[in-house]
Structures are given as structure tokens and as C-alpha cells.
């Protein structure tokens, strides 16, 4: 393996590991208010068991991942099988099988609202060309990291947009759903190319603003505009405390499952903590709202830009052990897929 390939592999593994670590750090606080988090846990400063009262993941042990990581690995598997493509019908069936398996194990941690609605329509025999037309949440963004790892963005943003859209269509076939996913995937892909975090975030905003896909219009606030505002907030708040910054994120960006809140908030955290990736994930875990997904998205971007060394090995090892993850072979296959696509473009 060449030095260049070693660096690329390190960033790919960093993206997947950052995603899973963020997911696990946010697991015990997901869907809770910031005040409930403080009352229940104090402040999250490491991996924690979920309390019995946790609304989504009661009693899950520290280091457990959620649907964010599970679905990202489904996307990775489909990309590898499809040589860079995801067939929407195959994807829908894979998600349905995953949901059934989670139910059989008694898990409460199932699908987000947009994905659940779309897949109920698929089960009922609906045409997948129309099932994602109301999906404006972050379900596509939380699972899209493998697309960013496997797909070069430089030189062919149209191809990149098509690959992201393939991962969105069945559940999030809307402009907010697509833009949220495209921003995360693009930032990861730029990180894979060697960009630092600030460069990757800015480049992603520029690239996605020019992408055209047949996604449905939505009256909701624009994801790109809010992401730019969130980065402005992070830049303007450099001198304030982390507590004050988190208060401003809640008030000015939001931390709900909506793509136009959670993706911009993840970008703001990645910007502020560009050189302290773990701090970004811990901040996300304490925000309240969709903590696991915000932390997972920020972790993916920061991991792609900093490599796996940006995160504590003991925490990564705990997540891998508890959640039975073996990410290195997946990262290697995605990097090989990226390299093949790079060669075809030359």
C-alpha cells in the first residue's frame, strides 16, 4: 500500500469510526431535552449507559450504536455490491429486513419518521418513485457517509449528486432531504481528498449549491442557507464558552430531526471543534434533541478530515467491542471503490 493509499484509508476509517463514536456518545441522550440530560446524566463526558427512562434506547449499554450506524453500514454494503451504485428498490428491501430484525430483537430504536412512512408505503406496494416525496428529515444524511468515502467529488459533481440521490430517493426524495445528505457526503469526500475541516465544509457548501436532482420542492427553510448561517455563528462565537455556544445553537440552529436544523448544527460543531473532534461529539451529545445523529454526522466529517487518530482509541475500541463492529474491511472496500472510480475518470 502506498503512502497516499495509507492516508486515504486512515481518513475512510476515521469517517466510519467518527460516525459510530458520535452515534454511541449521543445514544443515551437522544430525544431528550438539554435540561433532562443535565438532570439525568450531569454532563456527558464519555460513553454512558442509557437509563431505563431513555425514550428511544432504554437500558442500552455504553458503546452501543443506533440506527445511524446500522443504516450507514447497509449503504456501504449496497455500494460495494453495486460498484458504486445503490439500487433504490434493493435499498428499500434491505431497510425493511433490518427493521424486521430489530423488531424481532425487541428494539425500540427503529426508523425515523420519513424513512418509516416511506417504507410503510413500500410494504403496501407503492411505487418507490413516489415514496420519498415528503421526507425532509435527516435520515438520508445520517447514513450517507459511505457514499462520500466511495465517491470522488472533484471533477464530476454531477456523478456525485446522482450517487447521493440514489441513497435518498426511496425515503428522502425532497430538496431538504437531498441537500442535507449531499452536504455531509461532500464534506466527507473533500476530507478524503486531503482537505482540512474548514476547507471541506466550505467546499461542500459551494459544490452542493450547484447540484441539480429531481427531488421534490419543500416549503421548509433551505438547508444550504441555514448551514451557511450556522458556520457564520461558529465563526462569530469563537470567543464564547462552550456552554454559551450550545445555547446559541439550540436557539438559532435547532437540534431536531429536520435536515435544515440537524445538518447545519453538525456543521457548526465541526467548524468550532475542527481540531478537537471528540469535543464536537460530546457537545452534540449534550445539546438535546437528535443528539446521536448530530454527533454521528459531525463525527463522520471530522473523521474524514482528521483521520482515525482524531478520536481516543479506548472509546473507539469500546464501541467496536460493544456494538460488534469491524470497520476496517468496510473502509478498505470503499477506498478501493473510490480508487476505481478515480481511475475511470482519468
UniProtKB/TrEMBL annotation:
Enzyme class: hydrolase
Superkingdom, taxonomy of origin: Bacteria
Cofactor note text: Binds 2 magnesium ions per subunit.
Binding site for Mg(2+): 66-68, 290, 292-293
Metal-binding listed as a keyword: yes
Keyword Transit peptide applies: no
Keywords assigned by UniProt, alphabetized: Glycosidase, Hydrolase, Magnesium, Metal-binding
Gene Ontology molecular function terms on file: metal ion binding; poly(ADP-ribose) glycohydrolase activity
EC code: 3.2.1.143
Cofactor(s) needed by this chain: Mg(2+)
UniProt xrefs under PANTHER family: ADP-RIBOSYLGLYCOHYDROLASE (PTHR16222), ADP-RIBOSYLGLYCOHYDROLASE-RELATED (PTHR16222:SF12)
Annotated protein name in UniProt: ADP-ribosylglycohydrolase family protein
Organismal lineage: Bacteria, Bacillati, Actinomycetota, Actinomycetes, Bifidobacteriales
Amino acid at each position: 500500500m502506498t503512502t497516499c493509499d495509507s492516508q486515504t484509508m486512515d481518513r475512510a476509517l476515521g469517517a466510519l469510526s467518527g460516525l459510530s463514536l458520535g452515534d454511541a456518545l449521543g445514544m443515551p441522550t437522544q430525544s431528550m431535552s438539554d435540561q433532562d440530560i443535565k438532570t439525568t446524566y450531569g454532563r456527558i463526558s464519555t460513553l454512558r449507559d442509557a437509563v431505563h427512562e431513555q425514550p428511544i434506547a432504554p437500558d442500552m449499554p455504553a458503546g452501543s450504536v443506533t440506527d445511524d450506524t446500522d443504516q450507514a453500514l447497509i449503504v456501504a454494503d449496497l455500494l460495494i455490491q453495486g460498484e458504486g451504485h445503490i439500487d433504490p428498490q434493493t435499498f428499500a428491501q434491505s431497510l425493511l429486513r433490518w427493521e424486521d430484525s430489530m423488531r424481532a430483537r425487541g428494539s425500540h430504536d427503529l426508523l425515523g419518521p420519513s424513512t418509516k412512512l416511506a417504507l410503510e408505503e413500500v410494504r403496501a406496494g407503492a411505487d418507490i418513485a413516489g415514496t420519498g416525496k415528503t421526507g425532509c428529515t435527516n435520515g438520508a444524511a445520517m447514513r450517507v457517509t459511505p457514499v462520500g468515502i466511495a465517491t470522488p467529488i472533484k471533477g464530476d459533481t454531477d456523478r456525485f449528486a446522482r450517487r447521493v440521490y440514489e441513497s435518498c430517493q426511496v425515503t428522502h426524495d425532497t430538496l431538504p432531504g437531498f441537500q442535507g445528505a449531499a452536504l455531509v457526503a461532500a464534506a466527507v469526500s473533500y476530507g478524503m481528498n486531503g482537505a482540512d475541516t474548514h476547507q471541506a465544509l466550505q467546499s461542500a457548501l459551494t459544490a452542493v449549491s450547484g447540484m441539480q436532482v429531481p427531488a421534490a420542492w419543500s416549503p421548509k427553510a433551505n438547508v444550504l442557507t441555514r448551514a451557511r448561517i450556522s458556520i457564520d455563528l461558529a465563526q462569530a462565537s469563537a470567543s464564547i464558552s462552550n456552554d454559551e455556544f450550545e445555547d446559541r445553537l439550540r436557539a438559532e440552529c435547532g437540534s431536531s430531526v429536520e435536515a435544515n436544523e440537524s445538518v447545519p448544527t453538525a456543521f457548526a460543531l465541526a467548524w468550532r471543534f475542527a481540531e478537537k473532534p471528540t469535543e464536537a461529539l460530546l457537545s452534540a451529545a449534550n445539546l438535546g434533541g437528535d443528539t446521536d445523529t448530530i454527533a454521528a454526522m459531525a463525527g463522520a466529517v471530522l473523521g474524514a478530515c482528521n483521520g482515525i487518530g482524531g478520536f481516543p482509541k479506548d472509546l473507539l475500541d469500546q464501541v467496536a467491542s460493544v456494538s460488534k463492529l469491524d470497520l476496517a474491511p468496510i473502509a478498505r472496500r470503499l477506498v478501493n471503490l473510490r480508487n476505481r472510480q478515480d481511475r475511470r475518470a482519468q
